[in-house]
C-alpha cells in the first residue's frame, strides 16, 4: 500500500477494532441506536446495507484515533517502556498529546463527582461474549444487545472511559463529526452510541492489553503478557482488575442493567474474570481457523495503518497472528472446565449464521436468560433484512491453507472442521 493510500485509511476503532463478526459480504449490519432518558434507554433498530465489495472503502480519517482517551501518566507509561513514535505520524501524535491534560483533568472531576456512588455500586452478573477475533463475536454481541433488558459499553464510553459519566451526554453530540460513518475493513456503520468492546477502555486506562501492540509493532514480548495476565506482574494484574471493575461499575451506574460485553481478549481470561465476577455467564463462538486467521491478518494490518504512532512494521506479522490464535484456543479449552454448568454456551459460527433466531433462543435457554419472546421480534427483523444477501467468495491462499491443515490441525480436530482443500 502506498503512503498516500495509507493516509486515507479510516480509523478502525469504532465498535470493534479487530473483528466485525462477519465480513461485509456476510450480513447486513444492524445499527443499534440508544438515547439516554434518565436511567432508561430508548432503542431503535435500523438495518444498514453493506457494500458489495469485501474491500474496505477508504475515506478521510476525520480526527479520531484510539489513543485520544489516554491520560498523561498512561502515555508516559508507554513511552517509558519504548513506545515507537515517528514524525510521519505527527497527525496522530500531536492531537493525542493535546488530549492528555484534558483527560487527566476530567478524570479527577469525575472521581470527585461519582467516587462515593461508584464505591457503593454493585455490578449485576455480566455476560461475556468470547471468541477469537473474526469468529463472529460482534454479530453475536449485536444480537444480544438488541434486548433492552441488558446494557453494553458503547464507543464513547470505551474511548473516554476515564470520564464518560461526566462528559458523554454533552460531548458525544459535539464531537460526533470526529467519528467515521463506516469502518475501513468492512464499511459497516459506526457511531458513539454503538456497541464497542471493553478492551479499548482497558487499554486506555491501564495500557495492559494486547492492543498495546499498536505502539510496539513486531515486539510481542512487550504485550504478550496481557492476553491472559499469567506472565504479568502482581501489580499489573491488580491494576487491570481494578480498572475493569471500575469500568463495569460506571456502566452499571449509568444504566443499572446487566452488562453484555465482549472482547476477544477475554477469551484468554476466564480465570481472572471468574475471580472478579463469580456469577458471570459466557457465550463462546468459534469459526473455521482458515477464515479466522485470514481475516485477522488483514484487520491487524488495518489497525496498524490507522492507529500506529511509529513507522508501520509488518515484519513477522503472520507468525504473530498464528501464535495468538494457538494461545487463544488452548487457553480457552483449558480454562472453560472451571465454568459451572449453566454459565457457558458454545456456538459454531457456520451453524449460527444459518439460523440466527433459533440459535439465539438456544443461548437464552442454555444460560437461563430472561424470556426470549421479548427480544425475538427484533432478531427476526434483523434476519428479514438479510435474506437476499449473498456472501463474497475468495480464492484459497495455498500457503495459509497449509498452515491451517498442519499447524492448526488441533483446532480442526477439536471443533470438527474439514481441512482446507
Helix content: 40-55%
> How many strands, what sense, and barrel or not for the largest sheet?
4 strands, parallel
The SSE string, one letter per element, is HEEHHEHHHHHEHEHHEHHHHH
In whole angstroms, how far apart are the ends?
Answer: 29 Å
Total tally of structural domains: 1
Total number of beta strands: 6
Instruction: Output the radius of gyration.
Output: 20 Å
Instruction: Using the coordinates above, name the CATH class.
Output: Alpha Beta
Under CATH, the homologous superfamily reads P-loop containing nucleotide triphosphate hydrolases
Shape: globular
Kindly estimate the percentage of residues that lie in beta strands according to DSSP.
5-15%
Count of DSSP H/I helices: 16
Oligomer: single chain
Question: Could you please say which CATH topology applies here?
Answer: Rossmann fold
Sheet with most strands: strand arrangement: 4-3-5-6
Structural class: alpha/beta
CATH architecture tag: 3-Layer(aba) Sandwich
- Low-confidence stretches at least 5 residues in length (pLDDT < 50)? 1-61
Mean pLDDT: 84
Amino acid at each position: 500500500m502506498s503512503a498516500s493510500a495509507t493516509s486515507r485509511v479510516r480509523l478502525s476503532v469504532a465498535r470493534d477494532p479487530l473483528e466485525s463478526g462477519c465480513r461485509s459480504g456476510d450480513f447486513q449490519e444492524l445499527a443499534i441506536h440508544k438515547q439516554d432518558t434518565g436511567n432508561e434507554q430508548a432503542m431503535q433498530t435500523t438495518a444498514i446495507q453493506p457494500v458489495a465489495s469485501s474491500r474496505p472503502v477508504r475515506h478521510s480519517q476525520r480526527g479520531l484515533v484510539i489513543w485520544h482517551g489516554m491520560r498523561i501518566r498512561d502515555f508516559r507509561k508507554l513511552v517509558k517502556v519504548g513506545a515507537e513514535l515517528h514524525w510521519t505520524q505527527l497527525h496522530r501524535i500531536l492531537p493525542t498529546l493535546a488530549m492528555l491534560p484534558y483527560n487527566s483533568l476530567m478524570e479527577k472531576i469525575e472521581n470527585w463527582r461519582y467516587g462515593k456512588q461508584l464505591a457503593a455500586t454493585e455490578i449485576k452478573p455480566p455476560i461475556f461474549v468470547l471468541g477469537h477475533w473474526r469468529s463472529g463475536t460482534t454479530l453475536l454481541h449485536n444480537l444480544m444487545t438488541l434486548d433492552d433488558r441488558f446494557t453494553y459499553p458503547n464507543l464513547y464510553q470505551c474511548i473516554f472511559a476515564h470520564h464518560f459519566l461526566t462528559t458523554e451526554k454533552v460531548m458525544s453530540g459535539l464531537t460526533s463529526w470526529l467519528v467515521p460513518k463506516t469502518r475501513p475493513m468492512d464499511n459497516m456503520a459506526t457511531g458513539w452510541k454503538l456497541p464497542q468492546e471493553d478492551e479499548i477502555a482497558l487499554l486506555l486506562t491501564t495500557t495492559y492489553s494486547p492492543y498495546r501492540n499498536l505502539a510496539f509493532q513486531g515486539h510481542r514480548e512487550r504485550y504478550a503478557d496481557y492476553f491472559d495476565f499469567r506472565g504479568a506482574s502482581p501489580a499489573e494484574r491488580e491494576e487491570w482488575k481494578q480498572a475493569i471493575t471500575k469500568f463495569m461499575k460506571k456502566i452499571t451506574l449509568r444504566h443499572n442493567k446487566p452488562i453484555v460485553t465482549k472482547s476477544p481478549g477475554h477469551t484468554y481470561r476466564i480465570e481472572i474474570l471468574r475471580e472478579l465476577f463469580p456469577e458471570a455467564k459466557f457465550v463462546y463462538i468459534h469459526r473455521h481457523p482458515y477464515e479466522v486467521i485470514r481475516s485477522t491478518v488483514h484487520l491487524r494490518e488495518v489497525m496498524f495503518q490507522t492507529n500506529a504512532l511509529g513507522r508501520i512494521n509488518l515484519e513477522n506479522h503472520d507468525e504473530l497472528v498464528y501464535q495468538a490464535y494457538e494461545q487463544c484456543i488452548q487457553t480457552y479449552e483449558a480454562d472453560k472446565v472451571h465454568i459451572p454448568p449453566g454459565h457457558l454456551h458454545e456456538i459454531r459460527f457456520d451453524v449460527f449464521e444459518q439460523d440466527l433466531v433459533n440459535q439465539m433462543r438456544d443461548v437464552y435457554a442454555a444460560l437461563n436468560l430472561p424470556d426470549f419472546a421479548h427480544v425475538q421480534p427484533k432478531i427476526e427483523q434483523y434476519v428479514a433484512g438479510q435474506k437476499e444477501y449473498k456472501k463474497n467468495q475468495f480464492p484459497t491462499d495455498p500457503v495459509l491453507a497449509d498452515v491451517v491443515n498442519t499447524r492448526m490441525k488441533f483446532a480442526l480436530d477439536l471443533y470438527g472442521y474439514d481441512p482446507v482443500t
